[in-house]
Amino acid sequence: MVPHPAGGVGMTAAVALRGVSKVYGRRTAAVTALDDVTLAFVRGTFTAVMGPSGSGKSTLLQCAAGLDRPTAGEVFLDGENLARLSENALTVLRRDRVGFVFQAFNLVPSLTAELNVALPLRLAGRRPRRREVREVLEAVGLADRGRRRPAELSGGQQQRVAIARALVTRPSVLFADEPTGALDSTTGREVLTLLRGLVDRDGQTIVMVTHDPVAASHADRVVFLADGRPAGELRDPTPRTVAARLAGLEPAAEPASRPRPRQRP
Ligand SMILES: Nc1ncnc2c1ncn2[C@@H]1O[C@H](COP(=O)(O)OP(=O)(O)OP(=O)(O)O)[C@@H](O)[C@H]1O
């Protein structure tokens, strides 16, 4: 296990990044999406990642989840250095130890909720037990919707199915990239309450990218990024404290052009 960089007795990281950089493209076309990022996500906590557009949030998630390899630096998941894993081992780790939820629910339209949830187990070559699928659907409040297809569910319910599908392998970390981006504010809040409950009740570790200060306020901690680098963090965030901090990171808006004084005839 990797000690939390900030120290603290018994604080262990589910995921830790050490000196992680990610450069896309080459030479004159190179874009540095992450620049020497060292961060840890403590087990059993809910972290929101925020920052201006293009600050590297999604890239951070992709690298932390082993979906993409950093150009430099190391990522540890449950203390395991991902750089040391072969492509096959990394595929297995992604399948078994990492859950991912996106803004688009990405459910298979022809399959029922139960079958969508069972999919990661089938892909792992396992025969899913009905009970484990039911349990995870119950955990997201959809025990009675298992036989429905995605089109027969609301947007919030579809995102719950996607969350259940991400949880069915009992991953060490659930990564969520704008999970409420496609939902109205009431439904979004229900999904965030669900995520909060997974942390509080089951000790799930969650790392969520969001643009929304209200969504971020459900987390224990908000990590800010600017230009691919960590730009401070907030603990016990509120929508107001998050919005204020975020405003300080956004590029200054163009000054509004002043109205010209009227020419008198
Ligand atoms: N596959 C890629 N190829 C080239 N450049 C990329 C690629 N993916 C991301 N980038 C660039 O890397 C930088 C960081 O992108 P990233 O998507 O991580 O930012 P973000 O903070 O998630 O942005 P947003 O809030 O707009 O979704 C941006 O400048 C982006 O254009």
From TrEMBL:
The lineage of its organism: Bacteria, Bacillati, Actinomycetota, Actinomycetes, Frankiales. PROSITE patterns: ABC_TRANSPORTER_1, ABC_TRANSPORTER_2. The keyword Amino-acid biosynthesis does not apply. One of its GO terms (molecular function) is ATP binding. It comes from Parafrankia soli. Keywords: ATP-binding, Nucleotide-binding, Transport. Pfam families: ABC_tran. Residues 246-265 are annotated as: Disordered. It comes from the Bacteria. InterPro entries: AAA+_ATPase, ABC_transporter-like_ATP-bd, ABC_transporter-like_CS, ABC_transpr_LolD-like, MacB-like_ATP-bd, P-loop_NTPase. This is ABC transporter. Residues 15-252 form the ABC transporter domain. Signal peptide: none annotated. GO terms for cellular component: membrane protein complex; plasma membrane. The keyword Nucleotide-binding applies.
